[in-house]
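thought: user wants a sequence for this fold. calling inverse folding tool.
action: design(structure=
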């Protein structure tokens, strides 16, 4: 077959030169898109090369070769060639399986999509799992564009062959094809498909049963309502009681799908026992999967009595021996509280929560810190203040930084329930303490939370309690903290107003311009540049610009070129007022011109760039009125 495939009625050897291409030959594919025959033949030759890299490259360009050959010859020559030349290199097989899934347009459109099934069927029986999965994914893509006659004539026999394959590889792949085919065939064939899938659920090989359990959810979504009870539930139960925990854990997601399709009474009658059994499974991996999907299962069941029982089961999972299970059930706290009777929520959850706060696993405490805030809505203001705030305070003082970070990131949820006053009284001392945490990410989270606290507590409280703290961050040894601190000051200026910034913040920032440590002087530049757009041009003229002029002659080049960079946004700020616009010409441009002659090349570069940008901005501003008038 390889000898039959050619480009433009000439074999690859005839186009490119002598036959017997060696694996070391270099193939140039760059001209293939233009239809160059030599390049096209190079693709064909590379597909038979000894070099894996060349064969992989040829697959990437396979669509170009298909376009050159035409749809008919692609179907009659290229696809059979690919099928018969199945390689044993997993990387190549994976690439081929992916390419074929998007190859319908090159074989003549949906009408001929079935042509691609044969090579994909062979790939679906490959030994490597990722190759089989990609082949199944590509076959399912083909099914989307195939009509019913095609599915019944070509896909159903393909599924039958895979399902009856001698090796487990083909049967495990078959499980992934039933759902896609089910909705496109007659009732009679659907019956055969259900029987075939049930056979996979009963297969002696655990890997086949795993594949059946993994794909059962998709099948459940496609079958008619009457078959949920007759087909889905018996097979779910069979797999949920499997002796392999790797099979049982995969039945949790199908369980969620089944509960969506049943009435309250049907859930209680047919699934209650199975759910209880999975919740108490001897394998922690099964319990983990149940805990991770707990709320979805419980809400779909709908029966209030059974949901109350499940809340008790969830509380038991909070005491599970395995940390992964305890962490998984913590992610469900919000939904769990909704399932319990409102009058009993506080009583039932407080004890387990107190134990989780002191859990020996930092992963559990971290997950709890991320989700415990969601309970405030259910506990209410009084319940949160009495029961949850003490727990939050303990988590804020946790020795593991991620726990502290997760609590800080969710404080806005707590604030929305109890109000900032209650929050500040109980947690603010701990928050202030965390502002000097040795983990910089914790300090960063505190900085980002400060504007919210400030907006709620007002100017007086901020000036008394937090002002010095915010200024101290400007001298932090970590650059990200210093950067965040400057942005924080801009946000505070937006909250408290320009007059507050002029009298409180800007003098403290400018005082650092004389600090002997150059990092403080650098931070001064960053801070005033960041704040400038939020203050009036008069403040820029009277306070900010004189401070920058003093730093023009700083002995540190980094300071000087940052001054050059900062003068550009200051010029834009000064242009906002006719009273200050002239300073651009009288002060900023001469200053930049002087810096253009600086002995340091970086200073000269940034000074020149800022000057050019200022000129461009001025030209654009002058052109705008003319354009408006012309319009």
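)
observation: tool returned 631 residues.
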């Amino acid at each position: 077959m390889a000898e039959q495939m050619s480009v433009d009625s000439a074999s690859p050897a005839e186009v490119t030169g002598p036959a017997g291409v060696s694996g070391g030959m270099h193939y140039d594919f760059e001209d293939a898109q233009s239809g160059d025959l030599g390049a096209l033949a190079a693709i064909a030759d590379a597909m038979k090369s000894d070099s894996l890299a060349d064969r992989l490259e040829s697959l990437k360009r396979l669509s170009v070769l298909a376009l050159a050959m035409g749809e008919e010859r692609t179907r009659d020559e290229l696809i059979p060639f690919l099928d018969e030349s199945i390689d044993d290199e997993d990387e190549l097989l994976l690439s081929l399986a992916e390419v074929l899934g998007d190859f319908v347009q090159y074989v003549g459109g949906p009408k001929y999509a079935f042509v691609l099934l044969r090579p994909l069927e062979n790939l679906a029986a490959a030994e490597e799992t990722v190759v089989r999965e990609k082949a199944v994914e590509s076959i399912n893509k083909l099914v989307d564009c195939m009509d019913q006659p095609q599915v019944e004539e070509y896909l159903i026999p393909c599924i039958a062959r895979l399902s009856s394959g001698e090796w487990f590889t083909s049967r495990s792949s078959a499980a992934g094809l039933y759902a896609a085919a089910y909705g496109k065939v007659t009732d009679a064939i659907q019956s055969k498909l259900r029987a075939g899938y049930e056979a996979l659920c009963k297969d002696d090989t655990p890997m086949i049963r795993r594949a059946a359990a993994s794909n059962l959810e998709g099948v459940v979504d496609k079958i008619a309502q009457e078959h949920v009870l007759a087909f889905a539930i018996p097979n779910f139960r069979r797999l949920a009681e499997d002796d392999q925990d790797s099979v049982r854990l995969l039945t949790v997601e199908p369980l969620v799908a089944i509960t969506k399709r049943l009435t309250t009474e049907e859930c209680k009658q047919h699934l209650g026992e199975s759910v209880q059994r999975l919740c108490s499974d001897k394998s922690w991996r099964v319990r983990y999967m149940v805990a991770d999907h707990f709320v979805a299962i419980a809400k779909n069941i709908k029966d209030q009595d059974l949901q109350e029982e499940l809340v008790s089961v969830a509380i038991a999972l909070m005491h599970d021996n395995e940390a992964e299970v305890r962490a998984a059930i913590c992610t469900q706290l919000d939904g769990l509280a909704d399932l319990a009777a409102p009058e009993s929520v506080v009583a039932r959850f407080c004890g387990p929560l107190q134990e989780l706060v002191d859990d020996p696993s930092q992963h559990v405490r971290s997950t709890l810190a991320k989700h415990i805030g969601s309970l405030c809505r259910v506990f209410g203001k009084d319940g949160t203040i009495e029961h949850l705030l003490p727990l939050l305070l303990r988590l804020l003082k946790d020795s593991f930084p991620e726990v502290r970070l997760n609590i800080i990131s969710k404080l806005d949820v707590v604030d929305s329930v109890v109000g900032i006053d209650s929050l500040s009284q109980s947690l603010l001392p701990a928050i202030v303490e965390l502002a000097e945490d040795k983990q910089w990410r914790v300090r960063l989270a505190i900085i980002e939370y400060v504007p919210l606290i400030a907006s709620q507590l007002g100017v007086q409280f901020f000036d008394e309690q937090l002002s010095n703290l915010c200024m101290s961050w400007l001298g932090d040894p970590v650059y990200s903290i210093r950067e965040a601190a400057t942005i924080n000051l801009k946000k505070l200026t937006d909250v408290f107003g320009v007059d507050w910034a002029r009298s409180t913040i800007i003098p403290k920032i400018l005082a650092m311009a004389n600090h002997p440590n150059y990092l403080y002087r650098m931070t001064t530049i960053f801070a005033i540049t960041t704040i400038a757009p939020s203050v009036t041009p008069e403040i820029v003229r009277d306070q900010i610009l004189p401070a920058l002029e003093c730093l023009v002659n700083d002995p540190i080049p980094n300071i000087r070129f940052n001054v050059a960079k900062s003068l550009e946004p200051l010029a834009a700020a000064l242009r906002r007022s006719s009273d200050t616009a002239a300073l651009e010409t009288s002060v900023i441009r001469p200053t930049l011109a002087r810096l253009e002659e600086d002995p340091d090349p970086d200073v000269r570069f940034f000074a020149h760039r800022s000057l050019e940008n200022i000129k461009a901005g001025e030209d654009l501003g002058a052109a705008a009125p003319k354009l408006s008038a012309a319009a």
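thought: summarizing for user.
answer: Here is the designed sequence. Residues 1-39, 622-631 have pLDDT under 50 and may be disordered.
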